[in-house]
Amino acid sequence: MREPLPERILAWYGDDFTGSTDVLEAVASRGFEAVLFLEQPDEAFFARFAGYRAFGLAGSSRSESPEWMDAHLPPAFTWLRSTGAALCHYKVCSTFDSSPRVGSIGRALEIGRRVFAAPWVPVIVGAPSLKRYVVFGNLFAAVDGRTYRIDRHPTMSRHPVTPMHEADLRLHLGAQMNGRIELMDVLDPDAALAAKSGAGAVVFDTCDEPTLARAGRLVWESKTPFVVGSSGVEYSLMAHWGRPAVPSPAPAKVDQLVVLSGSCSPVTAQQIEHAGKNGFARIKLDAAGLARGEGVERAIGEAREALGRGASVVLYSAAGPEDRVALEGARNALAHESGRVLTAVLDSVPVRRAIVAGGDTSSHAGRQLGIQALTYICPLAPGAPLCRAWSNQPARDGIEIVFKGGQCGGPAFFSEVSGS
Question: What is the pLDDT of residue 327?
Answer without folding.
Answer: 62
